[in-house]
Design a protein that fits this description.
GO cellular component, one term: plasma membrane
Helix content: over 70%
CATH class: Mainly Alpha
Number of strands: 0
GO molecular function: transmembrane transporter activity
Membrane topology: Multi-pass membrane protein
Keywords: Cell membrane, Membrane, Transmembrane, Transmembrane helix
Radius of gyration: 19 Å
Subcellular location: Cell membrane
Structural class: mainly alpha
Mean pLDDT: 92
Order of helices and strands: HHHHHHHHHHHHH
Oligomer: single chain
């Protein structure tokens, strides 16, 4: 198989993990909530999904378990920051630390476990096209569902009444409350949806992308997903493109090694983390552009009685 086709295929796989998590965080931030706990939610979802897949033999059961784990942790986060008005940044960091430790503790028994053989997916006819088939049409269905979900999210946010209400809560919760909308409930549902998507990303990582369980296997992808929302200026289509960009950068090291390029492995492992920092540093040179696209109430508590 052509090495460039392999690189593109690996980019789509890696980008799917980032895209799912970043789209979930985007939903949170559209409602005015910033959740720094994505890394912890993804880790707990990864072990929950892997364990469920081991015992059930079903990838989709693993996805469901991962989404449930992510939503459960997000629910705890949502109660704390929405009803008890704890600091969103500190609570998110605590969630990330908790998820890291809890997943390591629970996952000890699953380090040596193996999943049943995964079926080979391929889109009939298209998968047989030279170069394009291996690169684009032999992926797990979740890769294509992520693209479809991105389109559905764009439609939801821009074309539906519910999406407009969600965005209005993120822009001005006080005005939304004055119009009679249940701001806290809307924010909580957004946090649940975001947690479920982060959970799906974590379970996809451990059940399909790797597939195995290793302590700390999310390896910073939650933080990269968080940076993606700012990189994309809170637009779903840009989130998807950015996920593929950063995912491709992460795979570039393996590609260079396969081509015989003599580059220190430590440098190659840093590429995926350097790229978001460089990109964010560049776009931060125009803070007015970021402020124009950022939800106005992001990270700010809401007090209905004030």
């Amino acid at each position: 198989m052509d090495s460039y086709a392999l690189l593109l295929a690996a980019t789509l796989n890696a980008g799917t993990v980032l895209a799912l998590a970043a789209l979930g965080l985007l939903i949170n931030e559209k409602a005015g909530i910033i959740n720094l706990g994505a890394e912890g939610m993804m880790l707990c979802a990864a072990i929950a999904g892997f364990a469920a897949a081991v015992h059930s033999g079903s990838t989709w059961v693993g996805f469901a378990a991962g989404m449930a784990a992510g939503a459960a942790l997000a629910a705890a986060f949502g109660v704390l920051v929405i009803w008890f008005n704890t600091n969103q940044y500190a609570t998110g960091l605590a969630l990330s630390l908790f998820g890291s430790g809890f997943s390591a503790f629970v996952g000890v028994a699953y380090v040596q476990e193996k999943l049943p053989p995964s079926p080979q997916y391929a889109i009939p006819v298209l998968a047989d096209i030279p170069w394009f088939g291996p690169a684009l049409f032999r992926h797990h269905p979740m890769v294509y569902l992520t693209v479809l979900f991105t389109g559905a999210l764009i439609w939801f946010l821009m074309r539906t009444r519910s999406g407009l209400v969600l965005r209005s809560v993120g822009e001005s919760p006080e005005s939304s409350h004055a119009l009679g909308y249940p701001v806290r409930r809307i924010r909580f549902l957004a946090v649940l949806a975001g947690g479920a998507l982060c959970g799906l990303a974590g379970s996809y990582l451990s059940v399909v992308y790797t597939p195995l369980w290793v302590e700390g296997m999310v390896a910073g992808n939650g933080w990269i997903a968080l940076a993606l929302t700012t990189f994309a200026t809170w637009r779903p289509a840009r989130v998807l493109l950015g996920a593929y960009l950063f995912g491709g950068v992460g795979q570039l090291g393996f590609f260079l090694q396969s081509q015989g390029v003599q580059v220190p492995s430590q440098f190659l492992s840093m590429l995926q983390y350097i790229a978001p920092v460089v990109v964010l540093a560049i776009i931060s040179r125009n803070p007015a552009w970021i402020r124009a696209n950022m939800p106005n109430s992001i990270g700010k508590p809401f007090y209905p009685g004030s």
